[in-house]
Design a protein that fits this description.
By secondary structure, this protein is of the alpha+beta class. It has helices at 3-29, 42-47, 72-84, 88-91, 105-122, 188-192, 194-201, 223-253, 258-265, 267-285, 291-329, 338-369, 372-382, 384-394, 396-411, 451-456, 483-495, 529-550; strands spanning 51-53, 155-163, 166-177, 183-186, 217-218, 221-222, 419-422, 425-432, 436-441, 446-450, 460-461, 469-478, 500-501, 507-513, 517-526. The chain folds into four domains: 44-138 and 151-202, no CATH class; 221-328 and 342-370, no CATH class; 391-465, SH3 type barrels (Roll), CATH 2.30.30.60; 469-554, Alpha-Beta Plaits, CATH 3.30.70.
């Protein structure tokens, strides 16, 4: 190796040695808790589990032993137990009062604890058992499907309440002071919103006159609430009964027609609407119950309002359709023009679409207004495949009928007012509904047929193009009857019938023959099937009367042979006539 090459080798080794020394010094200066992923220290990782504080509630006394704040569940349970015992000074230790001066923390903290207890009791139904029981509040999900399963949390939402048009959250956070154990407290932002929420959810004016002995808890409600809630519901029921009767009177005062019909149809939904509005006003300005009762009552009021509004809208649509039907279509039968029957069928289809939209809108409104379905929706979403299978199996018949009704309304193989021959019966189509078709038979009976059953059976639509129909009249007469005379009489009688149309199509022919009689068939065209049946019966009666009065010998009769003697051949009788019957030259008698 030359000198120049050795010098280069020693230079490279020296640079590598300096680099190793520098990197070793850097590693030595890093904290012991440093980790490989970006150099994050153990202290930084732990601070993600809580909020570090230098001081906490310096103005309060020492924390009582009854206050447990290790987990969210213990913290809120201790707060509720202390406030139920009216130990508000001790309950103030569950609040983070860092936004208050130390001097005002004792008095102000107790007052805020009392107000927060009333807010939680009345504002939203809070179940302590639903809160995490772990110190890190990590979500426990054995299935591992939750995206945050196993990750520690340091901030939780207890309730979300609306006051004066704004939304305020009551949150619980995890704090740590120096080297002490972390604890869970109500956040300072939530503490600052307590006065505003108390004005909205605090005790009502009526409660100021309730004796203290009735304010003790009995189960989930107070004693006075067990008395007041039935009275409250009875009062609301009386209001609804009065509104129901008043709307009924108004429907009688209105002139006959659409206003009277509409008023008579909205008696029940209007009563429920007024009941809901009165109950809501009483809850807002007169009386307020605990969250358990208030949540149930408000859910009931939301359902009543949604059902009332949706039903009134549907009644309005039905009334408008009724008016249009009476004005444009009139009596439902196939004597009306095809376009009018098609319009009525389209109106029924529009009604079903409006019903679907209304039901969907009401359902979405109810689900969006009830907080219960926020968590229920996640559970249903997680099991959407199972739910879809169950709904598909349970509602297969209903869904099939609904889809079939839409198919009939859109394709229009039948229309409202069409005359159909279904399973051997003449029926008018009176209505096509979601799950069934209502048919009116010729004798005024109503047949209720499931839609899927109707479309799966062959039927004859006698009004698909025109209500006109050929009718066939048959007469069985003797072989000696004069066909031409009968034909002329048929043409005469048919032309005198008002329901017989297209006289040039009238015809009469002998269509059958036997050894004793002949069959004469007469064909006529009627304006509609039922009118054609009536015309056929009338013409048959007149033809029978003509034959009976003028040619009774044309009626068919049986021939009895008394002798085999053929007078044309001059043969002697070969069969002795029956006893008591004289043979006159061997003639056969009829």
């Amino acid at each position: 190796m030359t000198g120049n090459g050795a010098w280069r080798l020693w230079s490279i080794l020296a640079v590598m040695a300096v680099a190793i020394v520098i990197s070793g010094a850097s590693l030595a200066q890093m904290p012991q808790g440093a980790v490989a992923n970006g150099g994050e220290s153990e202290s930084d990782s732990e601070e993600k589990e809580w909020f570090p504080l230098d001081t906490l509630n310096d103005g309060l006394d020492a924390t009582p032993d009854a206050v447990r704040r290790d987990t969210p569940r213990e913290s809120i349970r201790s707060f509720q137990q202390l406030t139920d015992q009216e130990e508000y000074a001790s309950a103030a230790h569950v609040l983070n009062l860092s936004e208050l001066d130390a001097a005002e923390q004792p008095q102000r903290g107790a007052e805020l604890a009392r107000q927060l207890a009333e807010i939680l009791r009345r504002g939203e139904w809070l179940d302590v058992s639903d809160l995490p029981g772990r110190q890190d509040a990590a979500i426990e999900d054995p299935s591992g499907q939750h995206p945050q399963a196993g990750e520690p949390r340091r901030n939780l939402e207890l309730a979300s309440l609306e006051a004066k048009g704004d939304t305020y959250d009551i949150r619980l956070a995890r704090y740590r002071v120096d080297d002490e154990d972390p604890i869970w407290l109500i956040t300072p932002d939530s503490v600052a919103s307590i006065p505003v929420l108390y004005e909205e959810f605090g005790p009502s004016l009526l409660e100021a006159y309730i004796p203290d002995r009735f304010k003790t808890s009995f189960g989930r409600l107070q004693v006075w609430e067990w008395i007041a809630i039935p009275v409250f519901l009875m009062l609301i029921g009386l209001v609804g009964w009065g509104v129901y009767g008043l709307v009924g009177l108004l429907s009688q005062w209105f002139p006959n027609g659409v206003p009277s019909i509409f008023a008579s149809r909205i008696r029940s939904p209007m009563a429920f609407l007024i009941m809901a509005f009165v109950a809501q006003s009483l809850l807002d300005y007169v009386v307020s119950f605990t969250a358990v009762a208030t949540t149930f009552i408000r859910i009931l009021l939301i359902i009543m309002i949604a059902w009332g509004v949706g039903t009134i809208a549907l009644r309005l649509v039905d009334t408008i359709l009724l008016k249009v039907t009476r004005r444009m279509v009139g009596e439902i039968d196939d004597t009306k023009p095809k376009d009018e029957r098609k319009l009525l069928t389209t109106l029924y289809a529009v009604r079903r679409i409006i019903i679907l939209i209304t039901v969907a809108a009401v359902s979405v409104y109810v689900l969006s207004q009830i907080p219960l379905f926020e968590t229920l929706g996640m559970s249903l979403l997680a099991s959407a495949s199972v739910l879809a299978v169950l709904v598909g199996i349970a509602g297969q018949a209903v869904l099939g009928n609904i889809l079939s009704s839409f198919q009939l309304s859109l394709a229009k193989p039948i229309r409202i007012g069409d005359l159909v021959m279904f399973e051997g019966q003449w029926c008018y189509v009176e209505g096509i509904f979601y799950t069934f078709i209502r048919l009116r038979s010729w004798d005024e009976r109503r047949l209720i047929v499931p839609v899927t059953y109707f479309v799966s059976k062959p039927f004859e639509n006698l009004s698909v193009k025109s209500a006109k129909m050929y009718r066939t009249l048959e007469l069985v007469v003797h072989l000696s009857a004069d066909t031409q005379v009968i034909r002329e009489k048929f043409l005469e009688y048919a032309k005198e019938e008002d329901n017989v149309v297209e006289h040039h199509r009238l015809c009469c022919y002998v269509t059958g023959q036997s050894e004793r009689a002949q069959t004469i068939s007469c064909y006529l065209m009627a304006s509609d099937p039922f009118a054609g049946w009536v015309a056929e019966m009338n013409i048959r009666e007149r033809l029978m009367a003509f034959i009976r009065d003028n040619h009774p010998e044309w009626w068919p009769r049986e021939v009895v042979v008394l002798s085999q003697h053929d007078i044309t051949k001059g043969d002697e009788p070969r069969v002795r006539p029956p006893s008591g019957v004289e043979s006159h030259g061997g003639e056969a008698s009829e």
